[in-house]
Amino acid sequence: MLTTTKLPPSTHRYSEIIHRLEAGGSMLPDTPENLMQIIGIYKAYAVPMDFYWRDLLYIAERVFLDPLPFFKYFLPQEYLDLPNHYAGETADYRVWQKGEASAHPELLEFMDKGELKQKLPKIFHHLWHDRINMEFAEACMRAMLWHQGMGGQFYDYLESEEYIQNSDRAIKAYFKGNPLMLGLYKLFPEMFYEKVRELSYYANLGLFWEVMAPVFFEMSDLYDAGEFKTVPDAMNFLINGIFIAAGRPIYHHVYIGAECYEIIPKSKGFMWLYEAALPYVEAVFYRTAPFRGTKSYNAQAKQVPEEQKDFHYGILYADVFPVGTAGIPPTLLMQDMFHFLPPYLLEYYQKYCRGEDDILIQLGITFQRSMYNVTSAVIQALRVALLYPLDDPNQEHLLKNRQFFEAQLDRFLRPEARLSDIQSQEYR
Amino acid sequence: MLTPLLLIPLFGAIAIALYPKPQASRTIATIFSLVTLAWSLYLLSQFDLNIGEIQFTEFHRWIDPLGLNYSLGVDGLSLPLLALNGLLTIIALYTNRKDMERSRLHDSLILLINAGIAGALMSQNLLFFIIFYELELIPFYLLIAIWGGEKRGYASTKFILYTAVSGLLVLAAFLGITFLSHSPSFEFSDIAIDNLDLTSQLILLTALLIGFGIKIPLVPLHTWMPDTYVEASPSTTILLGGIFAKLGTYGLLRFGLQLFPATWHIISPSLAIIGTVSVIYGAMNAIAQRDIKRMVAYSSIGHMGYILVAAAAGTELSVLGAIAQMIAHGLILALLFFLVGIVEQTTGTRDLDVLNGLMNPIRGLPLTSGLLILAGMASAGIPGLVGFAAEFVVFQGSFATFPIPTLLCIFSSGLTAVYFVILINRTCFGKLDNVRAYYTRLTINDQWPALVLTAIVLFLGVQPNWLLRWMEPTTTTLVSELHAPAIVQIAEIDNSYR
Predict the structure, then answer these.
(1) Which of A257, A320, A388, B74 has the CB geometry, 3.0–4.6 Å to A364, for a possible disulfide?
(2) Residues of A in contact with B433 (CB under 8 A)
(3) Three-class SS of residue B352?
(4) Which of A36, A375, A38 shows the shortest CA–CA distance to A239?
């Protein structure tokens, strides 16, 4: 790690964090406690994520335009066995060294008996919310769909004539022999195209998380093996993961009968980093929507910005308390992660605040810390891709790097941002 | 039958002092308090509901030349207060215990207060009453001075000065009553004021009114109260507001209304005005407060004003309402102070501008907040809770005699809702401040006294007959004394002036 910069000290409000980034560090302070928390939560996040990406692809590819998709969260065996491209023997690139390509064993065990630890008909587990809460994944997908214009070409393509024609073929094939739906399609074609666009974002997010789940599993294994010593170690692993998967194609295929309809073909060349990872970080970490928690913001009172780019309700700003929550609803995701916490993290939470009584809140704040680390990895990855090395001998280049870091941290100058909170270990 | 109510807590205090393990003090105090409470409940069960006069009397000559005798007895006015005294003692023992120093002394003092108040309520001899009336000031003074807040020195001194003056005035009035009426002793039953002229009666009754008015307290004699309630520890405040202040209203009814029925009749419009002013002043001040404990303290001034208005009206129903309000207010105020104590202890503040979102189910104090809402509703007189039962009887009984003061009191009960909505809205609702919200978890163990009080508030709200049945015969007796002889006496007094 670099220890000094050749530039004079930054005068930014977060100068300390900027100097840390310039030294190759993360926005999250480098402490053993932080490292333990973020790795533990990555593992707990990766297990439900292994369900999320499979179900997102299942909905995009198989459920498709089902007008009554009551069972879209009931993942068929085929998708539980769907091989992850970054794990197992068949992997394109094996990120998770010890893991299998099919669904994670802890996930399968949970899906079988749930929190109740009792095998009941699936519908009872579902209605009791004793399941993986796909609602969280869909909330993230909708955030990406809604904010859209966040760079890349994916969004523009969804408006193209080619996309409309691809969708048209799939819609007609899907509703073949269904005059009612075909009639509706004739009357309201835009409604159907919009629905297909949404499904393309299902595919987009599914393909994004397919990469992230094995990355997080591998990080957990490496930590358990004692190979991660610092927070920057974890961040650098993420940066490497981002670059390994950066060129992965983002596509949307639909399977109707025995035929595959390519709504967004792989040949379009949409890349994982620019069309999935960066829009995801922007939409979910920074923006999202203000109506996700138990508190709704009052648009008439100007509590909701007029411009979508000014939204700031993402996890990096979120108040994870259930009252007055902004951004991602904590309870569903936290509940999902709660089922897969490593023992050391569970033990850690029991020692602080109200132990198990407010574990979802503590867990949410750990998740926030971990996402600051992921955001740091994205910022460093962008710096690697677009700017200069941190030990560049050219002063001008270092200055460009600093301006980039300062511009990134400007987004956390808002009072809602939790960046200053996560600098303290006492924020739980 | 009544001596155990005096001796058990005294023996308890001695046992705590003698027992070698200081940490056992609360257990010992609880055992003795439970026995005391059980005994008072037994007396309630044995109380003859057909008799309005004093029951379970005990009499032993003590210092004959002084006219001071060991003379005890209870009626429907004092017996429910004795049960309330027993209950609140136990509640106080389980309030605000965290990191308490000198718990042995604390618990002994609480038992001494129990004995002192029981003695005052049971005394049938004026001098015997005044002994207890004064004696219980010492443990209260010590409780405030040792376990009080930042300004405890100021508050305890102010408390002792005011209440000592109260005692002196009452003592002077008692001496005047006995000597001027040439009564053979200080026995309550021996006192006959028929031969006193109106001026003497007015002077003596005014002395009693000011003396007991300080204790209640009535506006403008109240200034000791907010400081004392705020600075005293929650356990002490529960006893102060819940039962200590009731000695004032008890004294007014027992020695004012019962000894001076004719003069009471004459000054009753003034009493109603003073009571109404207290009610409105208390409510207005409560609305203006930023400190939740001070807000509850001012609410107490308002609610004690109802008792005076009802007592002044002097109808059977209004006096019944006055006694019921004493019990209802004691229960509700104890519940409020207990909950405010929990909030203060857990959050470290009583400031309305700082507190927020305590209803938060994960990091807040949801049970405490829920009970606080219920206590606020009870205090505001929401039907189904004991506050409504008592206030309804007060208003219905007083309206015929004093319609305007009663209407103002009814209006003021709406103001009660205003300040409790302010309190609850600021404290319980809204967004929990996550910089501060690292409050410790409260268990049922920490909150059971509030649950017990809430259960009683609910039960007596739904079944008010269980509250009123003990008081009805005594009320009938009191009011018959007030009206029948009053008319005759007023005529006699008028004749004597002509």
Answers:
(1) A320
(2) none
(3) coil
(4) A375
Task: Kindly report, residue by residue over A239-264, the tens digit of the pLDDT.
Answer: 999 999 999 999 999 999 999 999 99
Asked whether residue B440 carries a pLDDT value surpassing 90, the answer given is: no
CB-CB under 8 Å, A321 with B432: yes
Taking residues B246-255, what's their average pLDDT?
94
Are residues B434 and A353, on separate chains, in Cβ contact within 8 Å?
Answer: no
Tell if the CB–CB gap between A323 and B357 is shorter than 8 Å. Answer: yes
How do residues A187-196 score in pLDDT, each as one tens digit?
999 999 999 9
Asked, for residue A248, whether it belongs to a domain, the answer is: yes
* Listed range (B96-110, B276-290, B369-383, B419-433) with the worst mean pLDDT: B96-110
* Mean predicted confidence (pLDDT) in A349-372: 92
Backbone dihedral angles phi then psi of residue B219, each to the nearest 5 degrees: -70, 130
Place of tokens 């207005």: B284
Residues of B in contact with A361 (CB under 8 A): 362-363
Confidence of residue B497 (pLDDT cuts 50, 70, 90): very low
Number of residues that this document lists for chain A: 428
Residue with tokens 């009938």: B476
Least CB–CB distance from B361: residue in A322, A355, A428? A322
CB contact under 8 A, B360 and A323: yes
Are A50 and A104 spatial neighbours (Cβ–Cβ below 8 Å)? yes
Answer whether A357 sits within 8 Å of B362, measured CB to CB.
Answer: yes
Q: Which domain holds residue A342?
A: 32-286+299-308+333-358
Angstroms from A278 CA to nearest CA on chain B: 30
**Chain centre to alpha carbon of residue B111:** 17
* Beta-carbon contacts below 8 Å between A and B: 38
Q: Is there a contact between A355 and B437 if contact means CB atoms under 8 Å apart?
A: no
pLDDT tens digit string along A47-62? 999 999 999 999 999 9
Task: Note whether ipTM > 0.90 here.
Answer: no
Q: Do A324 and B431 touch (CB under 8 A)?
A: yes
Q: Please, which residues 308-347 of chain A have a Cβ atom closer than 8 Å to chain B?
A: 319, 321-324
Write the CA distances from B195 to A52, A275, B71, B494, integer angstroms.
95, 104, 25, 13
Tell me what pLDDT residue B483 has. 64
Instruction: Write the CA distances from A176 to A173, A183, B387, B442, integer angstroms.
Output: 5, 11, 70, 62
Indicate whether A320 belongs to any domain. no
Task: Find out whether A321 and A121 touch, Cβ atoms under 8 Å.
Answer: no
Is the pLDDT score of B164 beyond 80? yes
Q: How far is A322 from chain B (nearest CA, A)?
A: 8
**Among candidate residues A134, A118, A122, the one with its CA nearest the CA of residue A77:** A122
Tokens at residue B32, please? 């003795």
- Distance from the Cα of B362 to chain A's closest Cα (Å) equals 5
8 Å CB contact of B441 and A295: no
Closest in A295, A355, A358 to B363, CB measured = A358
The reply to whether A108 falls in a domain is: yes
Predicted pLDDT of residue A327: 46
Query: A305: which 2 tokens?
Result: 């910005």
CB atoms closer than 10 angstroms to residue B204:
25
Backbone angles phi, psi at B72, to 5 degrees: -120, 155
- Tell me the mean pLDDT in the region B379-401: 93
- Residues from B contacting A (CB-CB < 8 Å) are 357, 359-363, 430-432, 434, 437-438, 440-441
Q: Summarize the confidence of residues A377-384 as an average pLDDT.
A: 95
Q: Which residues of A touch B432 (CB under 8 A)?
A: 321, 323-324
Averaged pLDDT for residues A156-174? 96
With 70 as the cut, is the pLDDT of residue B42 above it? Answer: yes
| CB contact A416 to B (< 8 Å) | no
Tell me whether residue A171 is in a domain. yes
CB contact under 8 A, B432 and A361: no
Per-residue confidence (pLDDT) for residue A330, from 0 to 100 = 56
Cβ neighbours for B231, distance < 8 A, ≥ 6 positions apart: B144, B148, B149, B150, B151, B152, B154, B155, B156
